[in-house]
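Handoff note, outgoing to incoming analyst
You'll be picking up this chain. Sequence as last confirmed:
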Amino acid sequence: MHPVRRRWAAALLLLPLLSGCFAARDGSPYDTGAAVGGGRLRVAMAFPPAERFSPYGADATLLSRLGVTEGLTRLDGNGGAVPALAESWTRESARGWVFTLREAWFQDGTEVTPAAVAGALTHATHADPAPAALTGVTLTAEAAGKRRVRITTGTTDSALPLRLAGPSLAILSPKAYRAKGGTDRARGGAADREAAVDPAGTATGPFTLARTTGTTRATLRRFDGYWGGLAHASGLDVRFIADGTARTNALRSGEVDIAEAVPVSQAATLDAATLREVPTARTTALFLNTRSGPFADPAVRAAARRAIDPSALAEDVYEGHADTGRGLFGPALTWAAGAPPRPSGRPAAARIRHTTLTLATYDNRPELPEVAQVLQQQLREAGFGVKLEVREYSRLEAEALAGTFDAVVAARNTMLDTGDPVSYLADDFTCDGGYNLARVCDKAVDRAVAEAGSRADSAARHRAALAAQTAVLRTDAVVPLVHQRIIHGVRRAVRGVVLDPYERTFVGTGTRR
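Most recent structure output, in case you need it:
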């Protein structure tokens, strides 16, 4: 029997068993209920694809959330690395790891082999810009036997299993990387490496990307050869609706079955039974441009930080669906619980006179423009002149990273890219960071992050990450505002939506109506 057909047949036999696997009382992240059929699901997502579904940028998370892609590992509810395409792994040396693959198949019908996995990871290392999960890391991958892949890092990297769970390190079949002319892009120059990698029909998840309509719609069908069992839903009809009110209206009118990220202002308009609130690792913060403009002066940054009252945001803008910002890491991360950070040695706040600034944010998360308006008022009361700039995220990111604005309000899931707090700190707050909205370059921060990165034991690594957090906060480059809870809208007949605090999964094998 063809391997994909064999897997499909096995999945059919497992289907009655799967219907009882997602019980909240056992600690899983699934919304529960009896299976009620296997029709198509209509899903409204908040962020449209910005990079033609590239697996290496922001769209990597979109592919992961829709059940298209997966990596060698995944994160469990406690933030630890657990098996996905790799069923186990061992550490051979300070820089070397061996991962043993499970029996699995790509959506194009080819087998997931060590050579294919090594090739996929090699392509990721050549991507430009580099995937966020590889910030500050170099690695090589090679087949090491019938089901084994050896991965070697340039320096010691204790977080490698966590890193490999990142959506941007999803494993795709060799077909995904072939240019139209039939050549392998990894062997070409920069232009070849920058060409779009095609995840349609080449991933390993329970759903395969069948058709897209620009940035507005996508059609997914069930992949019957999925190693994790046959998905209950036969496919997904996805709409990308950036406007939160429109997304909510689509749910209310019955146009969609699931609406991602319902705005808190719209939650009261829906039946309470349709709401699913999820504590997340996402922190909304104010990032101050430390390299140019008024906030290049630490005393001016201190004045801005002193002027802001985050508690008003949690109570008013988020209507209680958020916790007041304590630091960079929120209450969804149990290891970050305890006393809030208390940075010392900050400069005295400057007296503000006639200081004007541009404050930017995006409207894909509808609370953010409201947050920016409250901050505008609070900063004005402290003597700042504030001009607001609100755009859709894909039209804001490049300029924000380039330092075009004096300040940016952004919501960042601190565990999204790697699941490792040290990697997040390195990417967002060090001199070489790739997502450094505050443009921080501080020797004390770099030293603290490097010290945290040297810790192999997870508990010691977490303690060192909290110390590095304090070093970041001491610069006043970032002002934590709130730790978010995400609200999803789910029609009564739908079960099995994945309530993931790391926001990497949303629709899975158990999602059905």
